[in-house]
Design a protein that fits this description.
The chain has 195 residues and is α/β, with parallel strands linked by helices. It is built from seven helices and nine strands. The protein has a five-stranded parallel beta sheet with strand order 2-7-1-8-9, with helices on both faces.
Length: 195
């Protein structure tokens, strides 16, 4: 898998930290030459999700075959028969285009990628300024029930404990500043030839 390879950029964060907005901003910066790693999942498609764009949708049985064949860089069973993972073929697809890979991924998956490709990966943990601010952002989205917001806050408190395991903690208290800092981090890591 190491034939033709670029760098890997892992962005992990609790819900409401602004991670996805930062990742989309970076993808729009053509000079960074990034492409988005599309995760595989065994959960059903929701709403207007498109197979091969939002996720690679595969059955739980097929997912288990891929696991047995060692086709994943990382994977986990989030709920029973509800798997998420990164296919090796997805990274290879992007590297074959001569691009660098960017991930918007949970903390456990992100750290597994870092462990597998320690010198090629920059793992960035996007942190909200506080749990209170994160909760406020989640409420302002108006997309979740109160129960779901509380679930996300509890999960965030667990995820924040992993921040120390990442290469960089990017505190997003101002989105424009965070976007600029993320651009510089990615740009500098691409320029660094020590891999």
């Amino acid at each position: 898998m190491e034939k033709k390879s670029g760098k890997l950029f892992v962005f992990s964060a609790p819900s409401g930290s602004g991670k996805t907005t930062i990742v989309h901003h970076l993808l729009n910066q053509e000079e960074l030459n990034l492409d988005f790693s599309i995760s595989a999942t065994s959960r059903p498609q929701r709403g207007k999700e498109i197979d091969g764009k939002d996720y690679h949708f595969i059955s739980p049985q097929q997912f288990e075959v891929f696991i047995k064949n060692d086709d994943f860089v990382e994977w986990e069973e989030v709920y029973q028969d509800n798997f998420y993972g990164t296919l090796k073929s997805e990274i290879e697809r992007i590297w074959q285009q001569g691009k660098h890979v960017i991930f918007d991924i949970d903390v456990v998956g992100g750290l597994r990628i870092k462990k597998k490709f320690p010198n090629k990966t920059l793992a960035i943990f996007v942190q909200p300024p506080s749990i209170e601010e994160m909760e406020k952002r989640l409420r302002n989205r108006n997309t979740d029930t109160e129960e779901k917001i509380q679930e996300r806050v509890t999960k965030a408190e667990r995820e924040l404990k992993f921040a120390k395991d990442f290469d960089v903690v990017l505190i997003n208290d101002n989105l424009e500043t965070a976007k600029k800092e993320a651009f510089k981090l990615v740009s500098d890591f691409i320029e660094n030839k020590n891999d």
